[in-house]
Amino acid sequence: MIEIAPSILSADFAELGAQVKAVERGGAGLIHIDVMDGHFVPNITMGPLVIEAVRRVTSLPLDCHLMIADPDRYIGEIARAGATMISVHSEAVRHIHRTLTAIRELGCRPGVALNPGTPVVAVEEVLSIVDYVLVMSVNPGFGGQSFISAALDKISRLRGMIDSRGLKAHIEVDGGIVLQNVCEAVRRGAEWLVAGSSVFGKEDPEEATRQLRLKALEPLTV
């Protein structure tokens, strides 16, 4: 199923509850929460307290993307804060199989993320134990960046790997998703589309979510 996952990294934090409710009305299927530590990426964002606050205002799944240097240290706290899904970067975890298994044991859906310069083969051996693979289509750390077009080929190759093995892992794409490229991402095999500034950067996030979702569904109706 195609889902829009608005990223609160681009939201107005003075109105966070209202903004989350707005994108929910607009048809968002997930709420994407970027956790950054200033080490793995050059930015510091939000943590468990924000996850707890968002959990109180929505019943939507909370898609927590850990862009941190030592995710094993924090996955328990993130899970207890209300995460539904937790993705960790293959580049940040030494024992990725163990970490993904631990996320599932905490009651969350495990995902593995890939930076633009990381090949899909890096996650080949864990595709059978993840619920989703997050393909970064920008270099992680900041919102508002432009889509890296090479991510489309990566999505296609990853889709082929998953389908050829009869696996159920979803493909999520994160970074630079706008009305002009969302259809092509879906055609290549993406199912969950993270959108930050193209939703929360608009005057009406509810309507922006609705329009992005309708556009993402177009390839399925042709």
What would you note in describing this structure?
The chain is α/β, with parallel strands linked by helices. It contains eight helices and eight strands; from the N terminus they run βαβαβαβαββαβαβαα. Helix 1 packs parallel to helix 8 (205-221). The mean pLDDT is 95.
What can be said about this structure in brief?
By secondary structure, the protein is of the alpha/beta class.
List the helices and strands and how they pair.
Layout: E1 3-6, H1 16-25, E2 31-36, H2 48-57, E3 62-67, H3 75-81, E4 85-89, H4 96-105, E5 109-114, E6 132-136, H5 150-164, E7 170-174, H6 182-188, E8 192-195, H7 197-200, H8 205-221
Parallel strand pairs: 1-8, 2-3, 3-4, 4-5, 5-6, 6-7, 7-8
Helix pairs in contact: 1-8, 2-3, 6-8
Q: Secondary-structure element order, as H and E?
A: EHEHEHEHEEHEHEHH
Strand order of the largest sheet: 1-8-7-6-5-4-3-2
**Class by SSE composition:** alpha/beta
**How many helical elements?**
8
Q: Could you tell me the radius of gyration in angstroms?
A: 16 Å
Report the major sheet.
Answer: 8 strands, parallel
How would you classify the quaternary structure? single chain
Q: Round the mean pLDDT to the nearest integer and report it.
A: 95
Proportion of residues in extended strands: 15-25%
Low-confidence stretches: none
Percent helix range: 25-40%
How many strand segments? 8
Outline: globular
Q: What separation lies between the terminal Cα atoms? A: 16 Å
